[in-house]
Write a structure and sequence with these properties.
heterodimer, A: alpha/beta, four-stranded antiparallel β-sheet, 10 strands, B: alpha/beta, Rossmann fold, Alpha-Beta Plaits, 2 domains, 11 helices, globular
Chain lengths: 245, 305
Amino acid sequence: MENEHIIRVESLTKRFGDFIAVNNISFEVKKGEIFGFLGANGAGKTTAIRILTGLSAATSGKAIVAGYDVNENPEKVKKEIGYMSQKFSLYEDLTLKENITFYGGMYGMKYRDIKAKTKELVERFDLGSVQNELISSLPQGWKQKLAFSVAILHNPKIIFLDEPTSGVDPYTRRQFWLMMYEAASHGVTLFVTTHYMDEAEYCNRISIMVDGRIDALGSPSALREQFNAKDMDEVFRIVAQNKKT
Amino acid sequence: MSGITASHIAKSYRKLKALDDVSFEVEQGEIFGLIGPDGAGKTTLIRILTTVMLPDSGTAVIDGTDIMDYRIVRKKVGYMPGRFSLYQDLSVEENLKFYATVFGTTMAESIDRIKDIYSHLEAFKDRRAGALSGGMKQKLALCCALINEPKALFLDEPTRGVDPISRKEFWEILARLKASGMAIMVSTTYMDEANMCDRVALIQKGKILKIDRPAALAASFPHSVWAVKGSEMYRLITDLQGYEHTFNIYSFGEYAHYIDARSEDISAELIAFLAARAHKDIEVKAIDPGIEDVFIALEDTEDGK
């Protein structure tokens, strides 16, 4: 089971009229892996994520996510995954506890389970001091932490994170990544996009999308070697600037 | 002449001191960076200097005009707010025309000034602003901020959510604007961008702690920094969090940065500690601190209080 592929994408394509947003991409993600999904703005990342999370249908190709085909069973996929968007998505005028109760209810969790899970999350992420505060009154570092704890509320197998650290300062970004590492060590798979190239290094493997294609895929060290680059920033520049071949 | 002068600016929101006695100067032809944690007061400061908001006390002068003469100041400043605030339903061209009209000019008159940036956008001039990618939106917002030929340009996290290549292009544009004599004030959470500023102000809880050249700020870091690497980075970091001599440990790209509480060369001891915990492929090397190390130390001490 160690090498189980929790995400399997085969020749996935999405067209909007004449425009090919996602162009025949194929890759696999292992269970418990932190997979970095990189690419320039407009390269097709968000479109691909929307397909993988069952929010948008592919034009052709296939994606198996957490055991279900997203084209055939998008609702089943949604139950198995968590999602944290770049826009902060908790209700600002509810407390943490109220947010958790609300999202738990949305995922169809029983009240008893929500209560138990709340207790577990509060202990695990050390949220006790803020659980009854309104979200709006908290600093951004806490909000990030809380959004993540809500995204993993229903024990998802995979969490999709779309630029979770955009506009976040260097210190808070690191706290956030420690939390992601912690979740991955429990076997949760993390599928994350970022524009911070130091964060690309924290992923087990990364892919780089260019004009809808995946033009590079591998571990950070393998990619540094492949492109003879000193860091991921250089790898990204080489791959993303080499467009329209 | 100084492009931006702020003297003893203070601003409170009820009990919270958002800005506390803030003073500095930005020269014409200088890029002045503002870095600090969320809630440090960066946006409040920019809003006061662009006359969107009044300070409780203190004064500021933009290109020779006091900010209380807001009608004149507004003609002299360009402002790119942190949130994309152009009309999403208007096309690229319509947004530019609208801004030009507001400032009593026309697109034809302004085009020379912005053609450098507009050339990246021209192919999309009929696209609605809301349908642009992040990098394009940011270029459009910059075009609009430049349409009145500002003497001082204020950019509030202009590259938030922007990919590394577009960020580089953006900073090349800033360098050209700087060369034209503009005073530029920019806030950012990217420390590579902080390094590209002429001077940087570190701001925390409404106070400016230090203003200096990026290299001088980095050199002022009081500890030696060790870059550490092993085959299991998460476990390496958690193990070092429990090491008795650890002052700080945090991830830093391929390596982690380790700060020892002692000042002597501790690399052999550190390697022995990690080897005893079955870490493989251990690498330890002394490195020069950077501005990001300075920033993290700053927030870490705050968090510890």
